[in-house]
Structure formats: structure tokens, C-alpha cells
Specification:
This protein has 328 residues and is mainly α. Helices cover 73% and strands 1% of the residues. A two-stranded antiparallel ribbon has the order 1-2. A hairpin with a 2-residue loop joins strand 1 and strand 2.
């Protein structure tokens, strides 16, 4: 009696396509970006030109840098909700201190809160084991309170945007935003750190399995403290760039970027559970949200509606990510 070997059935086209997209996450993101641009062009013919591309890049860059903060912290299973407050504090302090101080001194004073908040976040999360969401939300509220007190002490002296930040935020060189002079080195540094350094590998290891990382000799609290200080420093730099773009210092300058920064990281493929993701996808995610914001503006959707939409985007992408992981 002979048995006939059964040949394995080839995977369906849908499953093969899903596998292809899962292995190359940038492709569906780029396709989505192109679709949004095409929809924008259909709704407002002629809007997509060199000037529009430059303006889109100007607004996408601050979001992309803040989303880089979220990407790095989310790789460890954390999150940084204080980035908006840190960016606002650095921008507001710079604009008020430059009136009476040397630019170098004003810059140091502007970045000081970023370092302090990053240290507090890192120690709270890494040493005292406070959940990152609670820790960074708490420091965000404290920072906002300090900023309100600080405003009362400098309200009489006024504020001024340094010429260099004006040049960096809104200027163009050969049609390209001057902000690229800041963003390109920052982006390269983040990608290199995550992909080519021991620190980057440790971030992935901690997010994938914290206990195993500890057993392998990783000094968890030092890694987490360094991570949140880096995140806050990037947020502070973003604030300086953003005030040069917006040209209006306020106590809520960068707060509207917090939720989109999380959404950009999630859309870009970074798992909120840690251990998976990268910055390249986050950059595309920031571009997608910037174009989407333009589209919603044309459709006259209010700010509240945009926040609701961004929240649904985070939930949808997270659910889709979990489905892909289960199918693997």
C-alpha cells in the first residue's frame, strides 16, 4: 500500500501581498502618501507645485523630529508626552532671553529645561519604574506650570525671534527649506544610532524583552536616562526651529504636535509595545500627516475633528500591526 505525498498549497494572492507589504513597510506608506497628494491635486488643481512642496517640508520637519523622539522611546516600550512642553519652553525662553542676553547664553538657558526634564523623566522611568506615560505627562504639566510663572517675570521685556531662527524656520536656499540643514544631520544621526550603534541595539533589546536585556548585562536605568535626555534635547531643538517657523511665541506653541508625533511614529511602523520600528518610516509618517492636515484644511475640518481623526489613525494602525504579527 503506497501513500501519496500531498503537495503544499501555494499561498493565496492576498496572503502573498500581505506578506510582501509586511516585509517592506515603506512601500504601502509611500503609496498612501502619493494617493493623498493626488487627492489634494484633484480637489485643488495646481496646488502641488514647488512652493507647496517646500512649505509642506517646512511643517513636516518639526513634526518629524518630535516623532523621532517618540520612535526612540517607543522602541523601549515607552512614550514621551513631555516633548510638546519641552519644545514650547525652549522656544519661549529663547524668544524672551534673546532680548537682553547674548545669543549663546540665551541658547543655553533655553536648552536647560530640556536637559532637566529629560533627566527627571529618565530617572523616574529607569530608576523608580514609573510608567513612561504617567511620568512624562506629569513632567509636562509641571513644565507648563513653571512656564506660566516664568511668563509673568518677563512679560514686561517682550520677546524677539532671532534672525538665525527666522532664516532657519522660513528661509529657502535654491528652493529647498533651510530647515533641511538641521533636519538632515539629525535624521542621519538617529538612523545611524538605531541601526549601527550598540546604544541603538540596546533600545531594541530592552523593548523586545527587558528581562533578557537585564540578564545580558544591560544597565537599564542608564540606558533609559540617556534616552529621555536625548529625547528632550531633540524636543528643545525642535522648539527653536518651530518658533522660527511660526514667529509667535506662546505657552502652547508645540502642544498641538504631541499627538501627531505619536501618530507619525505609529504610522511609520514603530510598535507601541516596543522592540520593532525605525525612523525612516516615521519620516514618511510625518509627511503623510502633514499632507493630510492640508487636505483636512481644504475640507474645512476643525481642529477637534483632526485630533479625533489622528486618534482613530493610531488605533487603526495599532490594530493592523497586531493582526500582521498574529498572522506571521
Amino acid at each position: 500500500m503506497t501513500s501519496t505525498a500531498t503537495m503544499p498549497q501555494p499561498a493565496s494572492f492576498g496572503r502573498r501581498l500581505k506578506r510582501f507589504m509586511a516585509d517592506r513597510p515603506l512601500i504601502p506608506l509611500i503609496i498612501l502618501l502619493v494617493i493623498l497628494v493626488l487627492i489634494l491635486q484633484v480637489l485643488r488643481p495646481g496646488i502641488v507645485n514647488e512652493r507647496w512642496i517646500a512649505n509642506t517640508a517646512k511643517f513636516a520637519i518639526p513634526l518629524a523630529i518630535l516623532a523621532g523622539c517618540q520612535t526612540m522611546t517607543m522602541l523601549t516600550g515607552g512614550i514621551d508626552l513631555s516633548v510638546g512642553t519641552v519644545a514650547t519652553m525652549s522656544a519661549f525662553i529663547m524668544a524672551t532671553q534673546i532680548v537682553n542676553q547674548d545669543p549663546t547664553v540665551a541658547f543655553i538657558l533655553a536648552m536647560l529645561p530640556a536637559v532637566l526634564i529629560g533627566l527627571v523623566n529618565g530617572i523616574g522611568v529607569g530608576v523608580f519604574r514609573v510608567h513612561p506615560l504617567i511620568m512624562t505627562l506629569g513632567t509636562s504639566l509641571i513644565g507648563t506650570g513653571f512656564l506660566q510663572v516664568y511668563q509673568r517675570t518677563v512679560i514686561a521685556s517682550g520677546a524677539r525671534i532671532p534672525d538665525f531662527l527666522n532664516w532657519l524656520g522660513t528661509g529657502l536656499t535654491y528652493g529647498f527649506p533651510n530647515a533641511l540643514f538641521l533636519f538632515v544631520p539629525v535624521a542621519v544621526l538617529i538612523v545611524f544610532t538605531l541601526n549601527r550603534t550598540g546604544f541603538g541595539r540596546v533600545l531594541y533589546a530592552v523593548g523586545d524583552n527587558e528581562r533578557a536585556a537585564r540578564l545580558s548585562g544591560v544597565r537599564y536605568w542608564q540606558v533609559i536616562t540617556a534616552l529621555y535626555v536625548i529625547s528632550s534635547l531633540l524636543a528643545g531643538i525642535t522648539g527653536l526651529l518651530y518658533i522660527g517657523l511660526i514667529k509667535a511665541p506662546s505657552l502652547s506653541l508645540a502642544e498641538p504636535l504631541v499627538l501627531p508625533s505619536v501618530a507619525a511614529a505609529v504610522i511609520g511602523g514603530t510598535s507601541i509595545f516596543g522592540g520593532r520600528g525605525g525612523y525612516t518610516g516615521t519620516i514618511v509618517g510625518a509627511l503623510i500627516l502633514t499632507v493630510l492636515t492640508t487636505l483636512l484644511t481644504i475640507l474645512h475640518m476643525p481642529e477637534g475633528g483632526r485630533r479625533i481623526l489622528f486618534g482613530f489613525i493610531v488605533l487603526f494602525v495599532t490594530a493592523a500591526y497586531l493582526r500582521i504579527i498574529e498572522d506571521r
